[in-house]
């Protein structure tokens, strides 16, 4: 499934939330679909929305209807179309782009709006916060603006001799000026934004040597299928274990004090790259070496944890993937409150030795104040701390 289809599928499921509230009423609810481009450009999006609705129990023409409006790339048409949908008294508006969502927001503060966007919904002015959007908007974002430099870096990897690149921008887009200002920064981002394959791209030019990948994990080998998936991907790229590559696996078994020792072993083995997951293991690797490339998987917040300088320009010798989930901590607490309306006190068990859970706990506290929930902090630094936790009688 393509990313755009996946985003739209989630959006379709999200649209079902306000519809569920109307399901007991005899009048068939109406979804207003507001597209910025043309129907032909949004075929996959529309198909995925319909699929998401069906999976949520809503069939078009059966218990829900959809009113479509397409601006054909003309921003000036959006306010008229939104007004039509509002006058039509739609149950919810699905805005399939940032500009469409902004137009809907300016037109109504009462009709629920579900958006799908590649921009930052906070910076774009769509919502106040990720975990508590506020107002009548919610939706899905894949934060693509932060990846502009990464895309240019990958293009530079493919065409290393390219010295002139044309960037096609839409001057009618409300964010055109910001995009224009960002362009001079893109060329500078090439130096530090290559993806996980960059160390292998260098050594692939050589032959006759067996290269070493060091893998380190703060926990135990409790999810071998993940490591197997990594090995499968490497084989697909032509790297065969025992033939042209060797893996050196190290596990701290949740003994965080062992991380520095295990990383030191990998450095002494002169591995060609270190692959590591989470937040603590990459931090230990970064502290141990500034020369061996480090590829992190599923790090919590690489910026807040100090792993990288920025997403587009990581800097140093660290790159990889991130969950970017701290802002969702408040949303989890909000969902828990919806499931248990009488909830007034919550105990939060978190790892105080890891900087990422500290960021998550801070977001949880902020949401708890708004929801008027008392939060009891239970800090842990090792598995042994479980024995000292007070348990209810």
Structure characterization notes:
- There is one protein chain.
- By secondary structure, the protein is of the alpha/beta class.
- 37% of the residues lie in helices and 18% in strands.
- The protein has 12 helices and 12 strands.
- The strands form 3 sheets. The protein has a 5-stranded parallel sheet with strand order 2-1-3-4-5, sandwiched between helices. A 5-stranded parallel sheet has the order 7-6-8-9-10. It has a two-stranded parallel sheet with strand order 11-12.
- Helix 3 (78-87) packs across helix 4 (98-107), helix 5 (148-158) packs across helix 6 and helix 11 (328-339) packs across helix 12 (355-371).
- The longest helix has 20 residues, at 3-22.
- It is globular and about 70 Å long.
- The model is unreliable at 185-206 (pLDDT under 50).
């Amino acid at each position: 499934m393509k990313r755009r289809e996946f985003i739209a599928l989630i959006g379709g499921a999200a649209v079902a939330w306000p519809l569920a509230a109307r399901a007991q009423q005899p009048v068939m609810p109406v979804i207003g679909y507001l597209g910025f481009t043309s129907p032909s450009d949004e075929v996959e999006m529309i198909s995925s929305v319909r699929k998401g609705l069906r999976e949520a129990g809503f069939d078009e023409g059966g218990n829900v209807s959809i009113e479509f409006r397409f601006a054909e790339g003309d921003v000036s048409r959006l306010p008229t179309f939104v007004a039509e949908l509002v006058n039509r008294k739609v149950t919810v508006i699905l805005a399939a782009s940032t500009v469409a969502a902004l137009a809907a927001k300016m037109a109504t503060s009462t009709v629920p709006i579900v958006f799908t966007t590649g921009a930052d919904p906070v910076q774009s002015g769509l919502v106040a916060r990720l975990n508590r959007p506020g107002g009548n908007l919610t939706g899905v974002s894949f934060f693509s603006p932060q990846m502009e430099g990464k895309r240019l870096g990958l293009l530079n990897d493919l065409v290393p001799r390219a010295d002139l690149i044309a960037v096609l921008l839409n001057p009618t887009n409300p964010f055109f000026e910001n995009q224009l200002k960002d362009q001079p920064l893109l060329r500078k981002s090439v130096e530090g934004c290559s993806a996980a394959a960059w160390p292998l791209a260098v050594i692939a030019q050589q032959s006759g040597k067996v290269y070493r990948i060091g893998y380190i994990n703060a926990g135990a080998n409790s999810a071998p299928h993940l490591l197997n998936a990594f090995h499968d991907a490497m084989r697909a790229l032509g790297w065969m274990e025992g033939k042209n590559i060797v893996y050196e696996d190290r596990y701290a078994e949740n003994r965080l004090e062992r991380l520095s020792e295990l990383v030191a072993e990998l450095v002494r083995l002169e591995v060609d790259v270190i692959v590591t997951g989470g937040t603590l293991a990459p931090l230990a690797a970064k502290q141990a070496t500034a020369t061996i490339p480090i590829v992190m998987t599923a790090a919590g917040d690489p910026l807040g944890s100090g792993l990288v300088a920025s997403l587009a320009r990581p800097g140093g010798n660290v790159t990889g993937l991130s969950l970017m989930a701290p802002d969702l901590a408040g949303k989890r607490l909000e969902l828990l409150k919806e499931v248990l309306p009488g909830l007034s006190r919550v105990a939060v068990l978190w790892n105080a030795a890891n900087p990422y859970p500290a960021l998550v706990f801070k977001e949880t506290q902020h949401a708890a104040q708004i929801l008027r929930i008392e939060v009891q902090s239970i800090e842990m630094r090792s598995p042994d701390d479980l024995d000292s936790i007070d348990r209810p009688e």
